[in-house]
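batch job 7 of whatever, protein = Mannan polymerase II complex ANP1 subunit
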Amino acid sequence: MYRHSAYPNGYASNKRDDGEPFSQYLHRFQPRQTHLHQRNRILKLLGLGCVLTFFGLLILHPSTRNHLPLLGVASPAVKHFEIETLRYYDLETVQGTSRGWEREERVLLCTPLRDAEEHLRMFFNHLRNFTYPHHLIDLAFLVSDSKDNTEGLLTQLLEELQADPDPKQPYGEISVIHKDFGQKVNQDVESRHGFAAQASRRKLMAQARNWLMYSALRPTHSWVYWRDADVETAPVTLIEDLMRHDKDVIVPNVWRPLPDWLGGEQPYDLNSWQESETALALAETLDEDAVIVEGYAEYATWRPHLAYLRDPYGDPDMEMEIDGVGGVSILAKARVFRAGVHFPAFSFEKHAETEGFGKMAKRMGFSVVGLPHYTVWHLYEPSEQDLQHMQEMEAERNSRAQEEKEREERMKRIKEEFKDPNSQWEKDKAGIAEKTRQEEKAAAEKKAAAKKKVAAETKEAAEKTAAEEKAEQGEQAGQKIQSPDTASTSEESVKVKRPLGKKASSD
Ligand SMILES: *[C@@H]1O[C@H](CO)[C@@H](O)[C@H](O)[C@H]1NC(C)=O
């Protein structure tokens, strides 16, 4: 299959504005090529000069032939640069700093895609809006187990993006990687979020992330930014904002908007959390292959979740140390991956995928941080239940509108029919009105009488009760009254506050 589309534009990792044709850099990774080229040219000229001098000498002084072996010795430096396939990388220079955009640090943006056709245009709108210099960002997509036209649309959108006449739009190098994992779980919202499916689903996701990262990470990358395709709203300066913190691994808070009838908004990514004693004790009791997934009543971990600590007016720069991380939007230094941290597709400390990644990074001494008051909004996908409810609401709205219409028509008809003021109807109307007034008056009198009676009875009863109570109190005087357990309630109320059974997700 023809897999290499030639983009008319783009910025390779070694490409600066040096006026060389772009096509030369499209498919081959050739860092420092510009330097090599210049050096090669100089060397070739020097070589040509030497050869000419040599033949000149031979003609003029045949005795020079005796010195031939000496001339055959080339300097080691020349040999070094004559190896066409040699690449030299200094990893000391790509460790990642807080102001990467000023130091021209390259970012690898990784996005796993599965049946993501409907979200791709939105994702590319985000790409266009990123303020981190696009020529410093290389894109990597993994397309797996897709039944829709994810790959076709992806190619089309990439071509459009890279051909954009605005020189600030085209990105760096692009990798589209295809790999199926034989997804056993259905992709609809219910099966994806069901508890039983979580462990195996997360392990497959972990494999997908590893395939993508190991295939696309180059020695020129200082940072790796993981971004899901179904993010709806995010600050355009997100990469710089996260980078400024200069952490090894950092994530924002991820919420999702909801329809008004569901409360307007909701924490979405429950995979960013701090470890708790309860969860550690729970982990001890589990089988060695077990994977704890957050946000399900089956595993009550009582961990502090980044999501629930959000204050819309809080300081967006506030940091919180976390252990598990969610995968919607992760910025990590490339050195974390180079050091061997990955997304475990097995139970690592009873966790897999991004949560396992956070734990592993922490275990290797890297800093793992979340920003509770800096929020990214995930797309809201209604569940089956929500859809049904919405349908019911729609039906109700329609029937109410229909009723309203019918009532209006009836009124119109009545008005038209009885327009004549001298008609019998007017007289009848007056008669009816008078009769109604009388009836109402009688009813009101009856009601007042009844009220009076009730008031009298109530007063009598109250007096009687007061007397009885007084007598009782007399009996109990001197006895100590114990109140039934009030101590345990405060603890319980704290627990009740935790919303459980919410959907955790990293996709
Ligand atoms: C990108 O920026 C434009 C202009 O500021 C804005 O209208 C649009 O909503 C943004 N797109 C996304 C996906 O954030």
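notes: The chain is about 40% helix and 10% strand.
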